[in-house]
Amino acid sequence: MSLRRLPQALAVPLLALGFSLLVGAVFVLAIGRDPVAVYAELLRGTLGSPYGVGQVLFKATPLIFTGLACALAFRAGLVNIGAEGQLYVGAFATAWAGFTFRGAPALVLAPACILAGALAGAAWGAVPGILKARFGSHEVINTIMLNFVAIALTGYMVSNVFVVPETVHTPEIAAAARLPRFEAFMPFFGGSPVNVSFLLALAAAAGYALLMNRTRLGYELRVVGHSAGAGEYAGIRTGPAVITAMALSGALAGMVGSNFVLGYKHYFEGGFSAGIGFMGLAVALLAQGSAVGVVLAALFFGMLSHGALVINTMVPKELVEILQATVIASVIVSSNVVQDYARRRARERTAAGVTP
Amino acid sequence: MSSPAVELLDIHKSFSRVKANDGVNLAVARGEIHALVGENGAGKSTLMKILYGLYAPDRGEIRIDGKPARFRGPADALRAGLGMVHQHFMLVRPFTVVENMLLGREGVPPVLPMDRVAASREIRDLSGRYALDVEPGAVVEDLPVGVQQRAEILRVLLHGASILIFDEPTAVLTPQEATDFFRVLGGLRDQGKTILLITHKLDEVMQVADRVTVMRAGRVVGERAVRDTSPAELARLMVGRDVALGRVEGEAPAGAPVLEVRSLGVRDSRRIARVNSVSFQVRAGEIVGIAGVEGNGQTELVEAIAGLREVEAGTIHMDGRDVTGSRVAQRQRSGLVHVPEDRQRRGLVLEMSLAENLLLGRQRESEFSGRVLLRAEPILRMARRLSEEFDVRPRDVSLKTRDFSGGNQQKIVVARELGRAPRLIVASQPTRGVDIGAIEFIHARLREARDQGVAVLLVSADLREVMSLSDRILVMYGGRVVGEVPGRDAREDRLGTLMLGGAA
Ligand SMILES: Nc1ncnc2c1ncn2[C@@H]1O[C@H](COP(=O)(O)OP(=O)(O)OP(=O)(O)O)[C@@H](O)[C@H]1O
Ligand SMILES: [Mg+2]
Fold first, then answer.
1. Ligand 1 touching residue B129 (CB < 6 A)
2. pLDDT above 80: residue A321
3. DSSP letter string over B279-321?
4. Distance B242 CA to ligand 2 centre (A)
5. Which residue, by CA, sits nearest to atom 2 of ligand 1?
6. Domain boundaries defined on chain A
7. CA nearest A313: which of A9, A2, A38?
8. How far apart are alpha carbons A203 and A111 in whole angstroms?
9. What is the number of the ligand closest to the CA of B438?
10. By CA distance, what is B332's nearest residue in A?
């Protein structure tokens, strides 16, 4: 991100925050509570203690993965609504590898589990890519449909194939596959399940930036994303580019299991995600494609998500959900407002769609 | 004396890194055709966009009929009686002419059925008055470019414009269409309209304009009555030196065939046959020009040769090897370069930088990329060298190509393609929109390539370009090659007859 764009990049979250706090305050007032006190509690509970910070990082980790997944697809000109399904098959594959190869040493097993997740996610993501490349069918529909399939399929697995009686989860993974929690070497995070997969998420973000900006593949994906005509002209085959982008996107989403399975529960559980894949779209939109943006946006949404639990004692659960949804919506809206404003200012520089 | 129709006073406009207008003053009298000429990037389009309310000036004043005007957008400008015909038309292509005319018209309620009959009558009225022949019921995308342009002009007139701005209106027209267009312009002037005309073709200025203003580097460097000046003087004012665009014969006879097209048949995206059993050769060291009215199969022929369009029948050979079915990348590796006719859709990624655009199509060459990583240093070096060599302005390799002027965008595409070491150059409209200095340079580069033994296939709507460059000229009509003329003794009238399907 260039320095010139920095004010605009900061304006989005700030304006969004201000606006959404206002909207939230209206709801809080409506049920006769004091918005200032509620917000103060939200802040205290998230950033006021190492445990709170740990929780924010923990919640942000999967959002970084799905945010990167959606951002990568966006930049290649694709809309991946299927991160949810990709993360389900990925997390399941991660768990499967973890409870199947019990004898393997930790240094091999943990990476193998993560790789299994990424590969499964990639395969799941590649399917709509292939359908688009081969038959021209739109990826939005197909990724949505594959979400249903993925959730049902993994649900079937835990209730019919890898059954642990009385539960909806798989057997536990081998101890060697576990990723250590931060509290193991940073005791002040005590009690929070934030774990090494947060670092993995940061590494993925760095890898994403490197891929998009420095590699030939990233360059080709961006060309195709901006202009299919120019891509064709440059000898880039659109079909393989679409499949590759969808597979990479799916691989990123498929790594979510490292946090939940390897770092937290140590098994795969049906229904564990509850929309992390869809939140990835919001993260990617807010981030406008940049890796740093994805990390910051994921942290912001992670803070909201944990903050919601914190204020749950002061206001009803429904209100918390309303608050969360309004904040997300107003973040997106205000990011549009800011971009509109920037565009209008730019119109003074660039004619709308008219080039000489 | 009454006040001028348009007055621009001390207009300044800077973009982040460039001063596009640097204190421009311009006055245009009512009922005058005023031409605006100047090098690529001189600031002509910017000035006209300021006048039309698309850009806000940093400083300066606009007066219409002597009254100060402040436009916050084109809607304000329209109300003040201004209209602009863009080079890329603003018509909705699948709609009919009438539907387009009704679009965005004030006073048309959004939900009531449109009164097509009344509108058609109004269109016929206006068409008659200004000799703008357009069939109101025709679908825009089925019309030839020249007729689309007339529809665009009609739309502006229907909005009640009395001051009309044209940005390079003839760049996309055939010579015949251009002649018709000038007749229309004359008619508009005689009815009291004021006309501002940006063009790079100085003979057009001499032919239709009353006055001409020359811009250079954001300033006005001269203003003349057309009867008191000459193309040579204007050229000198524009580029600061004399420009010659004559014919230069090749040094050596042509060698072995590089491109061989045999009985080629190609269909367009709507499956209509556009090229029918076309056969020809281009040899090493010769320039073969293709003349023809646009829409007679040239586009599809070129796309087929470049590997961008499927071949229906026949074969294409390069250096004796059959490449009929091979991919774009393969043809590029065997030495094909291609300047596409549509720079905005094919030739450039407008959202990406100059350097990234100069890399387009070369991203797999080992000089610029390892197996995985791009080599940033060589790419930047190549970009700086090419933008220097082809005089791309501004010389800023990180600027998005969207922010370059039209002519400079064209130079970027040409620089990238001619900057490689090709075996075969396929150039479609290579000088569309560039200034005379750049035309001279690009022509020189094409001849130089020929003299070094490269085969060149040139397609251009500009008949004089074809005549001054080609060793042989093929004329296309209705998807067939209907004639071949040696370039040396080609005559415009004879080519013109062939192009319209007449016998030679
Ligand atoms: N939106 C923009 N952002 C940055 N620079 C711009 C923008 N629009 C134009 N410029 C710059 O302003 C200068 C003048 O551009 P302009 O389009 O007015 O030139 P022009 O005289 O119309 O040239 P041409 O004959 O090539 O069309 C150029 O250097 C161009 O790069
Ligand atoms: Mg221009």
1. no
2. no
3. EEEEETT-EEEEE--TTSSHHHHHHHHHTSS---EEEEEETTE
4. 22
5. B403
6. 64-299
7. A38
8. 14
9. 1
10. A235
Q: Which of A107-111, A202-206, A298-302, B291-295 is least confident?
A: B291-295
At residue B402 the predicted structure's pLDDT band, cuts being 50, 70 and 90, is very high
Judge residue B28's burial from the number of C-beta atoms within 10 Å of its C-beta, 0-12 exposed, 13-18 middle, 19 or more buried: buried
Question: What spatial distance separates the first Cα and last Cα of chain B, rounded to whole Å?
Answer: 54
> Which one is predicted more confidently, A302 or B500?
A302
Sequence-distant (≥ 6) Cβ neighbours of residue A119 within 8 angstroms: A93, A251, A254
3-state secondary structure B32-47: CEEEEEECCCCCHHHH
Protein residue with its CA nearest to atom 22 in ligand 1: B45
pLDDT band for position A354 (cuts 50, 70, 90): very low
Is the entire prediction scored with pTM above 0.80? yes
Q: With the C-alpha atoms ordered A229, A231, A236, A242, is the resulting torsion angle positive or negative?
A: negative
Minimum Cα–Cα distance from A222: chain B residue? B352
> In which band, very low, low, confident or very high, does the pLDDT at B489 lie, cut at 50, 70 and 90?
confident
Beta carbon of B409 within 6 Å of any ligand 1 atom: no
φ/ψ of residue B195, rounded to 5: -130, 130
How far, in Å, CA of B183 to CA of B186, rounded?
5
pLDDT for A351: 37
Closest CA to A301 of A285, A317, A319, A318: A285
Task: Give the model confidence (pLDDT) of B52-61 as tens digits.
Answer: 999 999 999 9
Rounded CA-CA distance B427/B52 in Å is: 34
The pLDDT tens digits for A197-230 are 999 999 999 999 999 999 999 999 999 999 999 9
Among B15, B39, B54, B412, residue to substitute to test ligand 1 (most atoms within 8 Å of Cβ) = B15
Distance separating alpha carbons of residues B104 and B116, to the nearest angstrom: 15
With 50 as the cut, is the pLDDT of residue A6 above it?
yes
Number of helices (H) and strands (E) in chain B: give both, helices first.
Answer: 16, 20
- Ligand 1 closest atom vs CA A351: 1
With the CA atoms of B203, B207, B213 and B217 taken in that order, what torsion angle do they form, in degrees rounded to the nearest 10? -20
How many whole angstroms from B41 Cα to the centroid of ligand 1?
5
Predicted ipTM of the assembly? 0.88
Sign of the C-alpha dihedral, residues A111, A117, A121, A126? positive
Among A209, A35, A176, residue whose Cα is nearest residue A105: A176
Q: For tokens 């079937």, what's the residue?
A: A156
Query: CA-nearest residue of chain B to A232?
Result: B308
Hey, what amino acid is at B231? P
Nearest to B373 among A4, A214, A236 (CB): A214
Ligand 1 atom 1, closest CA: A350
Residue B95: CB atoms within 10 Å: 15
pLDDT in tens, B346-369: 899 999 999 999 999 999 999 999
Q: Do B361 and A235 touch (CB under 8 A)?
A: yes
Structural domains in chain B plus CATH codes: 6-239 (3.40.50.300), 257-499 (3.40.50.300)
**Nearest protein Cα to ligand 1, atom 7:** B403
Within 13 A of B454's CA, how many CA atoms are on the CB side? 23
List the one residue out of B129, B128, B171 whose CA is nearest residue B149. Answer: B171
In a 13 Å sphere around the CA of B268, the CA atoms on its Cβ side amount to 10
- Tens of pLDDT, residue by residue over A55-77, are 999 999 999 999 999 999 999 99
Q: Quote the pLDDT of residue A349.
A: 45
d(CA A322, CA A28): 10
